[in-house]
Every structure is written in structure tokens, then in C-alpha cells.
Structure to design on (281 residues):
């Protein structure tokens, strides 16, 4: 997987073009992982003895 | 705006009823939020769909929406810096202590502050680099000048813009998911209508640190 898009100009020099779009599915997957991770954590927390209730007012 | 009673119990102060509504977001903040939301979704669609193979003339939509987003972000930055208590939105060590001690938050919880800080920083980076990249676009207002920066500097600008876009994609997905959770639905309703009940606010917010009253209340934005 590439992190950057790099091209060569007419003189053979490498030029930075931008971030690699190979990272697009990674960013999407990370978003999905946060959602699924939180959803599972939420289910586990709901089954906890306190039922995942928020803390009492101080 | 003062609290508006829904179904006050007889003989009680309607404003103090758990079901009475309190203001969480002023109309100006809600308009800003939804303009930003629409702009970010349009920007992501016009940026990522062509990469995924959907070909259309994405550049005009992208730069015009980017200008709208920049104007909205500029307005919000000035408004929150000079006319609001900026401190109430910044993550502070106290938030960590409160979380560790399981204390209720003021107007914003630590996760809300962190989401705002990271997503806001990514949007700021994307708009700042996007403004520079406007030099490469022909518009009715100016002619493109691709030689404004040298090739390697353009590369850095593109990398920063792309990295910010990817962070925005990840966090926008998380933001939409959290806003749709049943236990957080009151926040979504407050972002649409501006208000939530005292009961809903008391689930996550300490009423002594954020009362929800707006006028003449120094705690309006939370202590």
C-alpha cells in the first residue's frame, strides 16, 4: 500500500502529487471499525449490572 | 431564550420541571452546523466519488462548496472566539478528572469536545489548503496560476488536503453514528430544534455547571 502519490517529471525527478488514494478504504474502514467497536461495547455495557447508566449528578 | 414548559405540574415553577425545555443551541449555531454538514457531505461526495470511478464534472461543485464552507468556518471562528466562551468547548485537564471521577459534564462532555477539536482541526486544515488550491482553478473571478508555488510545495499542500479529507471521512462516519444512537437522540433533536428537556440534559450534564438558560446567565455556555 502506498502512502503518497509520486510521479516523475520530464527530467526524471520525483514529484509529490498528494496522498495515496489507497488510504481511502483505510479511512472508511477505520470509521466502520469505530462504529462496530462502539456498538459491541454498548451491547456489553448494557448487560453490565449497572445497565450502563450515566453517573449520578454530583 | 427562557425555558418553555411542556406539561408543568400544578403549583410548580414550569421552568424547573424535568420535562421543561431548555435551550442547548442558538439558531445561529444550528444554521452554522447544518450548512457545515451539507458542505462537508457535498465536498466528500465530489472528492471521493470520482476516485471510486463515478465520473462527473466535480471541480466546480467542489470549489464552490469549499468557498461556502470556508465562509461558514470563518464566521464560526470569529463568533466563538470573540462572542462566546471559547473555553467551554476546549478539552481541559478538568474534563479528564471529571471523567475519572464519574462527574457529570458542563455544557459539553469530553467526547463531544474531542470530536469538535479533531474534526474542527481537520476542517480548518482542509479549508486552509483548499484556499491555496483555488489558485489552480479557473473561476469567473480569477484565472488559474499553477506556478504560485513550486511543484514540491504543491505536493505538500495536496498531501495535507488529502490527509485532512480522510480524517474528516472517518470522523463524519463516527459523528453520524453517535448522533443516531437512541440515548443520544436528544442532542440530535437539540441540533434541529435547539432544545432538550431538563431531564435529558441531566443525564450527562451537571445543572449547576450548565443550566441551559441563555439570557443574563454567565453559565450559558457552561462552567
Amino acid at each position: 500500500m502506498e502512502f503518497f502519490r509520486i510521479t516523475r517529471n520530464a527530467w526524471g525527478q520525483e514529484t509529490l502529487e498528494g496522498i495515496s488514494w489507497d488510504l481511502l478504504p483505510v479511512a472508511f474502514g477505520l470509521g466502520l471499525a469505530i462504529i462496530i467497536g462502539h456498538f459491541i461495547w454498548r451491547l456489553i455495557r448494557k448487560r453490565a449490572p449497572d445497565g450502563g447508566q450515566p453517573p449520578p449528578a454530583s | 431564550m427562557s425555558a418553555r414548559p411542556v406539561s408543568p405540574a400544578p403549583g410548580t415553577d414550569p421552568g424547573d420541571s424535568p420535562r421543561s425545555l431548555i435551550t442547548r443551541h442558538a439558531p445561529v449555531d444550528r444554521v452554522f452546523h447544518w450548512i457545515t454538514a451539507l458542505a462537508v457531505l457535498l465536498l466528500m461526495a465530489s472528492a471521493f466519488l470520482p476516485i471510486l470511478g463515478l465520473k462527473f464534472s466535480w471541480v466546480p461543485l467542489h470549489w464552490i462548496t469549499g468557498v461556502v464552507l470556508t465562509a461558514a468556518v470563518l464566521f464560526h471562528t470569529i463568533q466563538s472566539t470573540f462572542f462566546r466562551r471559547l473555553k467551554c468547548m476546549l478539552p481541559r485537564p478538568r474534563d479528564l478528572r471529571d471523567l475519572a471521577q464519574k462527574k457529570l459534564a458542563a455544557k459539553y462532555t469530553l467526547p463531544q469536545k474531542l470530536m469538535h477539536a479533531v474534526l474542527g482541526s481537520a476542517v480548518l486544515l482542509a479549508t486552509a489548503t483548499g484556499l491555496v488550491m483555488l489558485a489552480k482553478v479557473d473561476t469567473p473571478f480569477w484565472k488559474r496560476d499553477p506556478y504560485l508555488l513550486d511543484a514540491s510545495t504543491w505536493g505538500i499542500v495536496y498531501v495535507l488536503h488529502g490527509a485532512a479529507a480522510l480524517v474528516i471521512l472517518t470522523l463524519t462516519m463516527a459523528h453520524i453514528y453517535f448522533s443516531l444512537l437512541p440515548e443520544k437522540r436528544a442532542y440530535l433533536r437539540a441540533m434541529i430544534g435547539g432544545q432538550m428537556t431538563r431531564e435529558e440534559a441531566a443525564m450527562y450534564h451537571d445543572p449547576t455547571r450548565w443550566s441551559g438558560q441563555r439570557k443574563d446567565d454567565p453559565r450559558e455556555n457552561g462552567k
